[in-house]
Records
---
Amino acid sequence: MGYARYEIIRANGDRIEAGYAVQAICEKDGCNEQIDRGLAHLCGKDPRGDDHGCGGYFCANHLYGDNQCESCAAKADEVNRWVHPDTGEEFDLRDRFLPAGARYDSRSPVWKHQGEWRGEVPVLAHVLPQGERAVDTETRLLSEGEWEDVGRIVYRQMTQAS
Ligand SMILES: [Zn+2]
Ligand SMILES: [Zn+2]
């Protein structure tokens, strides 16, 4: 199957041509950047729109994080934000975590939320950093003990290394 040109039906019922050979302009209001309708410019993963995005096409300046437009990225941030009820600490459930103070090693398991909840508290699974495959069936609660996201640990390790 080729991805150069194909027809899709959008969530609103419009029939459009998509694919990296199809010229378009960024769909952000007021932006006239020339783009194509390839997957690189797509908000989300499905041109018809899905849980990840709206299926709009945007220039590099108007796609954020996980290939999402501004409003979809904001929505995803909100959905993935969890506030610890006691400490008020905010977590992004897309992050990978380690117990506070731990060292990160790219070959060692990390803790990751995989959609499971216990009551109001996100459950963390013990997974390998590559592919997020579970290493065992152990789980932890994000409310138990102190956690740090791997991004922050890596940053600290990089800035402290000399
Ligand atoms: Zn979007
Ligand atoms: Zn744009």
Note: Residues 26, 28, 31, 33, 58-59, 61-62 surround zinc ion (ligand 2) (CB under 6 Å).
---
Amino acid sequence: MKKLTLTCLTVSLLFTAGTVLADAEKSIEYRQSVFNVTKWHMDPLGGMAKGELAYDADAALHHARQVNAMSHMAEEGFAEGTEGGDAKADIWSNWDQFSGGMEKFQQVSAELVSAAEVGTLEALRPAVGEMGKTCKGCHDNFRD
Ligand code: HEC
């Protein structure tokens, strides 16, 4: 009986450890996916801003909206205990700063949507520049 109890305990401990590991892996996969979607939509905006891609007001608005949507999805991929990937451990030791960076991501991408709604390249260009700086600012601090 004692042995059986111990076995059950061992199995449940192993199971718990396994679950935690799987969660971290899933979180890393989730947040990297969100950022890859973000990049998918930022690239054409960057191309238009640089004049490498023909300006298309409808496409710009679509892409800006998707970047803004992603800005609301990224943070939940960084739950406590999900260290790994290219995320620096500083994220969790400086959570307020990181979380502030996520808020900035939301704000600046909302301004990007407003700029895209104007419907001119002149309005779009500086907003894309600000967005790019915001991506880089967080990567410099929190990405390996
Ligand atoms: C508040 C912080 C923050 C902001 C803002 C941010 N990122 Fe990131 N980004 C990260 C972190 C942290 C990682 C590393 C995630 C990991 O590997 O676990 C990352 C990873 C990435 C990756 C690599 C994904 C992969 O497959 O490994 C891409 C691409 C990316 N970000 C694009 C962007 C773009 C484009 C923007 C701006 C529109 C942006 N990010 C804004 C923090 C941020």
Note: Helices lie at 2-50, 57-71, 90-93, 95-118, 121-142.
